[in-house]
TrEMBL record:
It comes from Rhodovulum visakhapatnamense. Keywords: Isomerase. The gene is rfbC. Pathway: Carbohydrate biosynthesis; dTDP-L-rhamnose biosynthesis. Pfam families: dTDP_sugar_isom (PF00908). This is dTDP-4-dehydrorhamnose 3,5-epimerase.
Length: 177
């Protein structure tokens, strides 16, 4: 398992060798020792399965403020997604974003540290996303940033065709409280 730090500090692309044989394939999905060796102390307390029927379904951009902030290890276990992280930590990187294509075929994943908002756009029908969380979801603490906020100017690969009303209604960075 190889961890490569992205453009946002603490954001890592996680790649695992895929061992194929006559039965199919095997890849490691998470390894505490490898993460610790990279200086990441991630102890998942929750894992979520997100099944998405249509191509170009958008979920996000979601986060929880401290003390509920969540690190996330995001993996696509069926199909492909375009996964986005937005830096909401105070400092020079505030508002910067990075996106990575995750796919079941590549068996890659994205690790987001606390303090980032997260979202994705599905690139195939039937995309299934499995993500481990470093902190529990607290319903009243769910926060969001609008996917098309001009201050973020995220270069989505296609306009979303399916999304929740809640995700359409999030504020932009400038209106964030
Ligand atoms: C996130 C979550 C939702 N739910 C419930 C609430 C609701 O009835 C239903 C769907 O919730 P949502 O619409 O918030 O689901 P969704 O929009 O898929 O939310 C997720 O989006 C991605 C991008 C993330 O990064 C996640 O952290 C999470 O915020 O599931 C839980 O029971 N536990 C959870 O941890």
């Amino acid at each position: 398992m190889r961890l490569t730090e992205g453009d946002l500090p603490g954001l890592y692309l996680v790649e695992s060798p895929v061992h194929a044989d006559a039965r199919g394939s095997f890849a490691r999905a998470w390894c505490r020792d490898t993460f610790r060796a990279a200086g990441i102390d991630f102890d998942p307390v929750q894992a979520n399965l997100s099944a998405n029927t249509a191509r170009h379904t958008l979920r996000g951009l979601h986060y929880q403020d401290p003390p509920y902030a969540e690190a996330k290890l995001v993996r696509c276990v069926a199909g492909r997604i375009w996964d986005v992280a937005v830096d909401l930590r105070p400092g020079p990187g505030y508002g910067r974003w990075q996106a990575v294509e995750l796919s079941a075929e590549r068996a890659n994943a994205l690790f987001l540290p606390e303090g980032l908002a997260h979202g994705f756009l599905t690139l195939t029908p039937g995309a299934v996303v499995l993500y481990h969380m470093g902190a529990a979801h607290v319903p009243g603490q769910a926060r969001g940033i609008r996917w098309d906020d001009p201050d973020l100017a995220i270069a989505w690969p296609a306009p979303p065709e399916v999304m929740s009303e809640a995700d359409r209604a999030w504020p932009g960075l400038a209106e964030r409280t």
